[in-house]
Amino acid sequence: MKRGKNSSSSDSATLSKKQKEQLKGKLLELKESVLEAIAFKMKHAVDRSNECESLIKGDDAEVAEKQRSSNAILQEIDMLKARLNFVERALYKVRCGTYGYCEETEECIGFERLWAVPWARFSVSVQEKRERRLRDFRGSRRASM
Asked: N or C: less crowded end of the chain, CB within 10 Å?
């Protein structure tokens, strides 16, 4: 891996051991809070499903609202699971010694970015380019429909 060649001054230094420990601690705290949130939402979803027989009772508006509420809980659980995957991937990279480096350019991501988004996989410039390409792609797909 060719680490050390950097384009921005904020990313110019490799993370110190202290910074890596701080970020690892933050990731572990995030993992715990996400697991707690998933457990809470799952319990809430189970409680809602226990009321399942009442889902078909009531007028159409009541049934639709109950279904919307159940779907919202399931979507929240999916988002939390995705966040957990990001955090676990970052913790894996900590164990492997590759945490803090852009997966595309292998440049150091920088402490400030990682403190804000500890599961970040890309440097700011790479992330911006990726988002711009995605926006352009979505725009061109809409234009072609």
From this structure: C
C-alpha–C-alpha distance, residues 77 and 40, integer Å: 9
Q: Quick one: which of 142, 122, 114, 130 has its CA closest to 27? A: 114
Looking at residue 7, its pLDDT comes to 39
Distance CA 110, CA 101 (A): 8
> Which residues does residue 108 pair with via DSSP β-bridges, in sequence order?
101
In the chain the first and final C-alpha atoms are separated, in Å, by: 43
Report the pLDDT value the prediction gives residue 9, as an integer from 0 to 100: 39
The pTM score is 0.75
- Cα–Cα distance between 100 and 117 in angstroms, integer? 11
Domain 17-144 - what CATH class?
mainly alpha
Question: Contact 98/2 with Cβ under 8 angstroms?
Answer: no
